[in-house]
Amino acid sequence: MAQYDRCSANAGCACLHIAGAIDVGICSYLSLARCAELVNCDPNNVCYEPEHTCVHHPQCQSAPVCFPVPIFNRQLCPLLTMTNATTTTTTRPTTTTARGPQLVIPNIPANAKWAQYGMTVAGGEGNGNATNQLSYPAGLFVDDDQTVLIADSWNNRIMQWKPGDKNGQVVAGGNGPGERLDQLKNPTDVLIDKETDSLIICDSSNLRVVRWSRRSGTIQGEILIDNILCANLAMDDQRYLYVTAYFIPEVKQYRLGDKNGTVVAGGNGNGAGLNQLYYPTYVFVDRQQNVYVSDSNNSRVMQWNKGAKEGIIVAECHDWMNNATTQLCGSTGLFVDTLGTLYAADSVHVRIMSWTQGAQQGTVIVGGNGEGSGANQFIYPTGLSFDRHGNLYVVDQSNHRVQRFSIE
Asked: A Pfam family for this UniProt protein (predicted)?
């Protein structure tokens, strides 16, 4: 595997070659340390600080450096398993409907509980490209009729599963990885613009956001925004599109047809200040145009009210080894209900949590039973959403499935 190749379902992780070794690397979360914080290895390629490994990191400096590799590295960087026809190899180390296009946002009771064992509603038949399979799915969108749209990232396609279907339907891409307009390359998110009856897709590795009509006979998309390493999408009631991009510390709002956009969160460089973000990924926008964002490298979820110059910390992680309900670590997918309760995926502790407004700690609503493929477990949960009844849908990325947890 080449230096900086993607090695994990977590797009923030990459392969770092171990100094002094031949063709040996470790899958690490690149933003665990800034370049200025890294120190050189000793002349024998040894690091004396605990949980550090001597690696090549030429983006920072030419000499080998000591890079943090914490004991929870496997949870932070779940490894990709790539399969072909002959071999399998694993890299190691009541509801409110928003006007027009947006989500159905359920009125979830404050004391709601969900079944602890999920039902697989998409995928779950292993890592593959058959129509009953997914390969490292990322974002999802749940339509009014409980149809689930999934960014099937490593199959370079968008899949649609209607309730009860055993097999999904390819509704965009599926023509191999590529940059043609009938192709996608590692899509990371999808939503429905109901006014135009079209899909809007983060076509991440093609550096673009594209739109595909849902009308029968559509064979290709059109580019809405280009030159953007798109991570995640949201759309508000006014049909403004919100986009996060990998490595860009801001959230931008776009009027459809606008190529430039307006910064609505962050935009003040990488950092931990309340006016800053550091590697934002998942984003959610409520009916008041308040923006919620997973601020990954700051280990927090931020709320930026409409027009605000600074954000508010809604939930955060101070200790990745601590699974107390005060900790939300490795936050990925987000959702906010009509009461303002935040629902977030904690990818480190493999659980979904809820945080009421102003709370100092959250509640585990599903998961938290260790990594695994059981119906009450996840391996790297990412996107999440709800249907009009309040049932919870979770992308269980490294189990290559989507799980539904029924509200009780």
From this structure: NHL
